[in-house]
Each structure stands twice: as C-alpha cells, then as structure tokens.
Write a structure and sequence with these properties.
Length: 275
C-alpha cells in the first residue's frame, strides 16, 4: 500500500507490485477524472469505477485501461446504458435509457444501436427489428417466380419498408432458378429438407389436390407454379429458415431425367415397354 504523487498534480493511492499499480487503488487526474478499482501491472484491469471530468460515470469491468466486459455508464445528460462493452464502447447486448424517456433493448456496435433491437418511445410507439448505425432499418424477404417452374429468393434491408421490398424483389428476380416439376404441377417424389433450424416435408400429390400448405411454404409454391402439393413445416417458424429449407427440398428432387443420367442409361433401357 502506498501513495505516489506526480509533479503535474496526478496522484495514486493503493497497492503496488514491482513498482506498478497492482491490486486495489485510486488514481486522480489533474482535470478531476478519478478511477477507483482494480489494477494489474499498471493498467486499469478488473472491476472499477471511472468518473470522467465531464461528469459521466462508468462502473464495471476494465481491461488494459479500457471499458471491456459488462458495465454501466451514466452520461452527463442522464442517458444510462447497462450491458456489454468493448474498447470503451457500448458493444454487444445492452439496454439504453434516454433522458427523454425512450428505452432501447438490443444489440450495439461501437456505441451505435446496431443489429436486432427494440425501441420503446416515451409516447408509447414501438420500433422492433434491425438497426444500422443508430437508425432503424427494415428487412424484407421476397420470393419471386414465373409460376412455371422458375423461382428466386432474396433478402434485403433498407431504411424504408418500400425500399427494402423493392431491393429484395429485384435481387430475387435476378436469382431465378429452374425447379423441375412432374407434369408441370407437382413434385417428382416426397422430400424432407432442413436448413438451419427450419425443417419441411414436401409431398407429391394427385391432380386436383391443390396447395395444402400455409405461410412461407404456400408463397414459395404459388410463385413457382406448383399446383398440387401437401407440405408442412416441422422446425422453426422463422420465415427465412422455412423458405431456405423449402428451396433446398425443391432443388434436391430427382427427376426421371436425373436418374437416367446418374445411371448412365437411356429411358428405354429402364422403363418397361408397353404392350
């Protein structure tokens, strides 16, 4: 335990190891800033409390003189953030309460609201979804097709709903791929497909069955031109996962032409001659 004072007015009171601040101690700067907490080899490392000259107060974890880990910061204007920090910035999951009564819960990146989050405004309005550099961004998932075996899927983000939909639609149209259909109306055989946490079962159906499916799967089938199918989602209800699983299943079909090609034979060599 010791006290050290510099000529410029700085001072440290606390524990030492090998002539370095190490353990618990308090450091006071000339401008009035003050740190109370743990030190390691001369660095603020561990749990501590930092009072900035502006009046802002941070209390939490430090690493090599920077806010790193979990902590709480209260700014001079009254804004309060509780959550994860990295390199002195709000970074990761956290909650921010603003001086005007607004409250945000979600992801941060270098001090910005960035990622998935929910803002509850003081007037009761709510914005929930994706944020980018502090601003709310909308996300759109679009499936496009020609209703004759062509299908494309795309995901896009934008600051406005209409812009996100337009961007995703343009991308989906540029990504159209061919889906093989039996008699131009149903699948060649039953398919089970999984993508991420999404899992779907797609079954071939007789003529006149119609599309027995709901939600995202129905949308995919309609734009692809599938007229008879029985389908069900068994995994996540997340539209992104369901659509990707559905696309994977449709692409994994084996048409008779594919089978002939894989066996290296002609159709006449496999199918029986009709009498």
């Amino acid at each position: 335990m010791g006290i050290f004072k510099w000529n410029d007015g700085r001072s440290y009171i606390g524990e030492y190891l090998n002539d370095e601040a190490h353990g618990k101690g308090t450091f006071i700067w000339v401008d009035g800033a003050k740190y109370e907490g743990e030190w390691e080899n001369g660095y603020r490392s561990g749990k501590g409390k930092y009072l900035y000259e502006s009046g802002t107060v941070y209390e939490g974890e430090f690493k090599f003189n920077k806010s790193e880990g979990f902590g709480t910061i209260i700014y001079e204007d009254g804004t309060k953030y509780v959550g994860e920090f990295k390199d002195d910035w709000e970074h990761g999951e956290g909650t921010a309460e603003y001086e005007n009564g607004d409250k945000y819960v979600g992801q941060f990146d270098d001090g910005y609201r960035h990622g998935k989050g929910k803002m509850v405004y003081a007037n009761g309005n709510v914005e929930e979804g994706l944020w980018k550099e502090g601003k709310f961004a909308f996300s759109a998932l679009v499936v496009a097709g020609n209703q004759s075996g062509q299908l494309g899927v795309a995901h896009a983000k934008a600051k406005q709903v209409t812009d996100a939909i337009k961007k995703a639609t343009d991308l989906a149209k540029r990504r159209l791929i061919h889906i093989s259909l039996k008699e131009g109306r149903t699948l060649h055989h039953d398919v089970v497909a999984k993508e991420g946490s999404g899992k779907v079962i797609l079954r071939s159906a007789p003529k006149g069955t119609g599309i027995i499916a709901s939600g995202a799967i129905r949308a995919v089938c309609e734009v692809a031109g599938i007229k008879d199918i029985v389908a069900k989602s068994l995994g996540s209800s997340n539209s992104h996962n369901v659509v990707r699983a559905c696309m994977k299943g449709l692409l994994n079909q084996l048409s008779p032409k594919n089978i002939f090609s894989l066996r290296g034979k002609k159709k006449s060599e496999i199918t029986e001659n009709k009498i």
